[in-house]
């Protein structure tokens, strides 16, 4: 490497470190947010080394600061008549390339750090989709687990009563995430409609098919993850056929990842929920999982009652001790730590692609990269969900509905483009085969160039 090139890289690394230190100081104790920022900033070093304009325009300093954070009280009355109070959030992180777009998460772990990490990731993920959507995220520490239908409705109505002041089809378009599915979106849409007095279909995505939802949106994140992984496999001259796959989680992302992987000939041997995991050496029976999780809303431990040759293990962490060719973490952030990653490697894993947001710690990612595991990071691999959300917005604006096949074909094209653009960016910036660097750079450049085009705003 030429000396000036090396000097530029060193200077860029120093600049990036300084910005990262400021982020830590400004956002004390927010470890998940720090983690997401660190992963992206380190990837961008070669960009700053090559193009001084981004540093001159303070793009990094601007992009790590959300345009706006809204935090609000959500009071509601439970079935016993007691007043409960939760905290609601919406972070409107970056609107350079389109309206803020990103899901709402209802989970007791939700706090400012989690919402900011998710919102920050969403900026780059949404940019990668090629659709005109900015980055946002929201949610609440409300726990839907064990709540009655009525309680969920009362909570979501109260949540939307406040949130409705800040969203709209051209400003900010929420959708689902952990704990927010078709039922919650339905209640929120109903309340929004009542509050604004009009039928603004494009204000939320992931809607039911009877009121403006898009075919394939339910399947999109899981299917998209598998389409992306299929591209990774193709690069290595392989396919899903006869591969052993472990999928963590059993929510919407996991279910449709399992479905598509099975359709492509893979054997999916495990899935989980927050209590434990199921190992079925004969291959997971997806009909059973769908019924337990989507219809009965029960725990995955029920699975072994119907499939006695399968094993249920309490606790989730050991799911990564099951030998597999392909691991698809689809549960939650930081579910694979360094030790779990080492176990996966020792057991021969060849591919890891992330369906959840940031399911691998920074140390786990290091383990994949240094052991020749081909790694598909979340913001590229799970972008199919939000991509089809953008297609839902397009259909709502045009007041028409595309067929399942039309949307599915567009989704496949989008995932292939994300893969190819990430591969290309990695190559161009000297990190061939590193999709972390590639996807971060490809996602960043479009947003950064647009921010420069818009001036200091
Ligand atoms: N929650 C999903 C994500 O993490 C989808 C968001 C959306 O459709 O707006 O990307």
From TrEMBL:
Keywords: Oxidoreductase. Pfam families: ELFV_dehydrog, ELFV_dehydrog_N. One of its GO terms (molecular function) is glutamate dehydrogenase (NADP+) activity. InterPro entries: Aminoacid_DH-like_N_sf, Glu/Leu/Phe/Val/Trp_DH, Glu/Leu/Phe/Val/Trp_DH_C, Glu/Leu/Phe/Val/Trp_DH_dimer, Glu_DH, Glu_Leu_Phe_Val_DH, NAD(P)-bd_dom_sf, NAD_bind_Glu_DH. The keyword Cytoplasm does not apply. Residues 214-455 form the Glutamate/phenylalanine/leucine/valine/L-tryptophan dehydrogenase C-terminal domain. Homohexamer. Belongs to the Glu/Leu/Phe/Val dehydrogenases family. This is Glutamate dehydrogenase.
């Amino acid at each position: 490497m030429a000396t000036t090139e090396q000097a530029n890289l060193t200077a860029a690394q120093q600049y990036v470190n300084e910005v990262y230190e400021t982020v830590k100081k400004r956002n004390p104790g927010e470890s998940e947010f720090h983690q997401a920022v660190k992963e992206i900033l380190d990837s961008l070093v070669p960009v700053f080394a090559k193009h001084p304009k981004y540093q001159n325009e303070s793009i990094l300093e601007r992009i790590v600061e959300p345009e706006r954070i809204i935090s609000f009280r959500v009071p509601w009355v439970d079935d016993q008549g007691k007043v409960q109070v939760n905290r609601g959030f919406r972070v409107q992180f970056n609107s350079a390339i389109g309206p803020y777009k990103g899901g709402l998460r209802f989970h007791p772990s939700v706090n400012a750090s989690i919402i900011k990490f998710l919102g920050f990731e969403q900026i780059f993920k949404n940019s990668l989709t090629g659709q005109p959507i900015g980055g946002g995220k929201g949610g609440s520490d409300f726990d839907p687990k064990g709540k009655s239908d009525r309680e969920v409705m009362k909570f979501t109505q109260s949540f939307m009563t406040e949130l409705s002041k800040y969203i709209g089809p051209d400003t900010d378009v929420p959708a689902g995430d952990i704990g927010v599915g078709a039922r919650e979106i339905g209640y929120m849409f109903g309340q929004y409609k009542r509050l604004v007095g009009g039928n603004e279909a494009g204000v939320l995505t992931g809607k039911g098919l009877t009121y403006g939802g898009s075919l394939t949106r339910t399947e999109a994140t899981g299917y998209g993850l598998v389409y992306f992984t299929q591209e990774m496999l193709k690069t290595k001259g392989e396919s899903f056929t006869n591969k052993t796959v472990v999928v963590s989680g059993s929510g919407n992302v996991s279910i449709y990842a399992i479905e598509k992987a099975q359709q492509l000939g893979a054997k999916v041997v495990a899935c989980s929920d927050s209590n434990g995991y199921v190992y079925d050496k004969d291959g997971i029976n997806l009909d059973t999982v769908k019924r337990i999780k989507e219809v009965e809303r029960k725990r995955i431990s029920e699975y072994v009652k119907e499939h006695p040759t399968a094993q249920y293990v309490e606790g989730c962490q050991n799911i990564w001790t099951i030998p597999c060719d392909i691991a698809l973490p689809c549960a939650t952030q930081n579910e694979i730590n360094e030790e779990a990653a080492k176990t996966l490697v020792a057991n021969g894993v060849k591919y890891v692609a992330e369906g959840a947001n940031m399911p691998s710690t920074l140390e786990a990612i290091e383990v994949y990269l240094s052991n020749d595991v081909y790694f598909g990071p979340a913001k590229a691999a799970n972008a199919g969900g939000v991509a089809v959300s953008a297609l839902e917005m397009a259909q709502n604006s045009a007041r028409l509905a595309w067929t399942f096949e039309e949307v599915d074909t567009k989704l496949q094209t989008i995932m292939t483009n994300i893969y190819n653009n990430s591969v290309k960016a990695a190559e161009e910036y000297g990190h061939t085969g590193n999709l972390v660097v590639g996807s971060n750079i490809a996602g960043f450049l479009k947003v950064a160039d647009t921010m420069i085009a818009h001036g200091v705003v």
